[in-house]
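Our working data are protein records whose layout never changes between entries. An example says more than a description, so a record of this kind follows.
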Amino acid sequence: MYKNPLFVIILVSSLFFSCKKNAEHENLKPSAKGEANTVVVVISGPNWDSEAGDAIRSRFSELVTGLPQEEPTFDILFVPHANFDKVYKRQRNIFLTQIGPDYKENFLVSYSPWAKPQIVVTVTAPNQEAFVKYFTTIQDKVVGLISDFERERLMSSYSSGKDAPLCKKILNKHQIDINIPEGYKVATDSTDVIWLTNEYRDIIESIVIYSYPYTDSNTFSKNYLISKKNQIESKYIRGEIYGSFVTTEDRFPVEMNEFSYNGKYTVELKGLWRMEKGVAMGGPFISITQYDEKRQRIVTAEGFIFAPAHEKRNLVRRVEAVIYSMKFPE
């Protein structure tokens, strides 16, 4: 196409230095700041005090399901446009609004524009009424994007800071590839069940992974999964008092969600657990269950928390990031 060798050399060199410059620019971006599960909401004062602000607060502060106490989905940090400077632009979760006659209903997602890792969700509308109506239609997607980003951030951190020998042991014995952060110890390790605990201060984070043969599609019903969970954990997840064991708290509902994750049909359960026939212990749990087709087995990875004197939302999201790293080696 190009007959002039000099032109080709110049073109290739330009592309090379352009890519190099972009890479250097990315590396120069500062590290994102901010507390876990906190969203900076950038909006004018009058709009924040209007129905637009009410809509944002209502959805972002919606209570998390599966917790024994009331905790919001996100903590909110309100920042007027005039104060949105380079300090706030380094926050890792930003919800940016633009409301005025120059805008139409739209939303845009960008990753790490000012810091890394970072997510910025921008929603625009011509007026408050249009904003509220439009935001109502996309609010679940917005919350899902920010929640997924927080989980991916933790998963990336655990991948680089994992306990390599423990992960290798799980891979070799159980044929499960999962990123376990440093600090976890093995409490139980049988043929089809492994229970790991991370104890610090007065908090216990637990990960339990178990598998059993696949029989039929009824395996993925909520009642079956809870029954199987109780059957396995009553045998392997024991308390300090003889005869005590972990079971599902049946006085509160268990939430079930079905979706595709990493190309696999996945069932997620969220609820509460309690210690049966022992000291008063309990807390929230979250689990995912998938079908390992190559080995014809069902695998569940569950995280549960004991932290009686602490808020639990962020703790649950920590174990959530661990169990969502589960993969089956081919």
The first strand starts at residue 38 and ends at 42. The radius of gyration is 24 Å.
